[in-house]
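Acyltransferase 3 domain-containing protein
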Amino acid sequence: MDSNALDIGASSSGVKPLSGVIPVPLPVSQTRLWSLDRLKVVLTFLVIAHHAGQAYGSTGGFWFYENAERWLYLRQFFWMNASFFMGLFFFISAVFVPGSYERKGGAAFVKDKAIRFGAPLLIFVLLVNPVLMYLSYINFRGGALPFTAYLTQIYFGMGPKPAGLRGPLWPDINCGHLWFLEHLLVYSILFAVLRFVWRRPMDPKPDRGKAEAPGDLAILGYAVALTLVSLLVRTRYPIDKWMFVLDFIQSEPAHLPQYLSLFILGTVAMRKGWLQTTPRARGLRWLCIGIGAVVAGGLVRFDLIPFPPEAKGIFFVTAECFIATGFTVGLCTLFREFFNNTTPLWQVLGADAYGAYLVHVPIVVALQYAIGNVPAGAVQKFLLVTIAGIPLSYLASHYLRKLPGVARVV
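Structure:
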């Protein structure tokens, strides 16, 4: 796998480990931006922590394990994460898409994405998610069917819907957390189709053709436009309302404007050199704006400052869009300025990040079930699952990738 394909499905296996443990700074003109590798790893940590908290916090979504006690303040953690981290993943994933297409050609590009994203999707939908959904069905949804009957009648929905069935959807078949891969696959195919139609060559080198990075006014314009579109979408589709577009694309429309727009901007950012040319002061300024929006959201959520109840919905959508914008610009700049280097450990973590993303949910759920009867509070359980889940997910990814043929996909 090409070493500078920095989508979450990229492998760093083509990079030789460096000797010693001293960080090796690299100029930003180098093909590979280690800052994005590090940012990808940190975001993966955050995703694992987010899912570790799903059983212990106040969330409107579905999860495979339900703890009796809930920690109210995790709600702010969930909201902050959902405001930016998957959008930023889409942005990072799209950064090297144009270069990858130009190097491989359309057919090879689509084939590579189909294998890399499609194979894990099929495995999880057909083998992993049925087990996780069945655990939820028998433990928290009042189900009594044996697994084979559940699989045919409820998971795959063969026959009429059983009377009195409780749950987030029917049939139960779903992509789980791999909806992200499904979207990446669809977006990548759409990109390939557009590039096939628009045959003008693109320069895949990130250090050529640099253009001036968007200024504060342009970034503000994006944040405002994203807010307006998101408000319009959420008049019909609130957060945590999931649906299947065209009966197979699992999507949460509330966040779709953010995900799609940041993927598009990611395909532009590297070719234009924005990741290298955004001034430090501008990037850190927008990071502060994002942090300020997080703080403001917490103050309003927990009624620490007076705010009209009828305007809270608009406020939270606006704050969320400014978090997404500020953190995308700010974190890319922060990591470029201060963490654009690598060590053998970071190279390993970068190589294993995609696999850790793939396997972390069954590991987290197993931990949640394992400590279900431990006499501890929701906070302690959340911390325990997070602290154990992150290294276990990376270790599982690391050794899984050593199996024959697996590294081709993971």
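The two ends are 10 Å apart (CA to CA).
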